[in-house]
Amino acid sequence: MTPQRQILEQQQHQQLQMQRVRNSGFLSFNESPIKDENDEVSRSALAAFMSKEEEIERRKTEVKEKVKNQLGLVEEASKRLAEILDELEALTDPMRKEVGIVRKKIDIINRELKPLGLSCQKKEREYREVLEAFNEKSKEKAQLVAKLMELVGESEKLRMKKLEELSKNIESLR
What's the whole-number average pLDDT of the chain? Predict the structure, then answer.
């Protein structure tokens, strides 16, 4: 309702109240004009007072309705915010669970990897030691094979020499 229309309705209401007050008490012909004036002033004051009271009640009702409307809007907004919060929690909750599960699996694997890593390091150390020993033995073998070849070569030379000598001795006996 616009303010001008409210004022117009209020004025019309006051005029009706004044007419009711005037019509409610019929003046007798014996009464004096002063009494009529006092009654008229009293009636107009009473009408103005009643009009103000009605205006106050009407405004009070309007304010109550506005407050109720605002409370309704606030309740709707509150419900919507609660729904949004629930949706947000629903979105983050599965992610948290999945992340927690993955982290637990990672921790378990880390615990399993630690002894495996130590075992691997130990075996690598052993492998290096064995490889070093293997290489040393291979070198030693190579040296021995070389020595053997040298000895076999010398032995063959000596045997050939002896065979030649024996051959010469046999030929000389002939």
Answer: 84
- Quote the pTM value: 0.37
DSSP 174: -
3-state SS track over 62-127? HHHHHHHHHHHHHHHHHHHHHHHHHHHHHHHHHHHHHHHHHHHHHHHHHHHHHHHHHHHHHHHHHH
Q: What is the CA radius of gyration of the chain?
A: 62
Burial level of 44, CB count in 10 A (0-12/13-18/19+)? middle
- Whole-angstrom CA distances from 13 to 7, 20, 45, 55, 84 are 10, 11, 15, 10, 50
> Which pLDDT tens digit goes with each residue over 75-108?
999 999 999 888 877 776 667 778 889 999 999 9
* Dihedral sign computed on CA atoms, order 53, 54, 58, 61: positive
C-alpha 141/C-alpha 135 separation (Å) is: 10
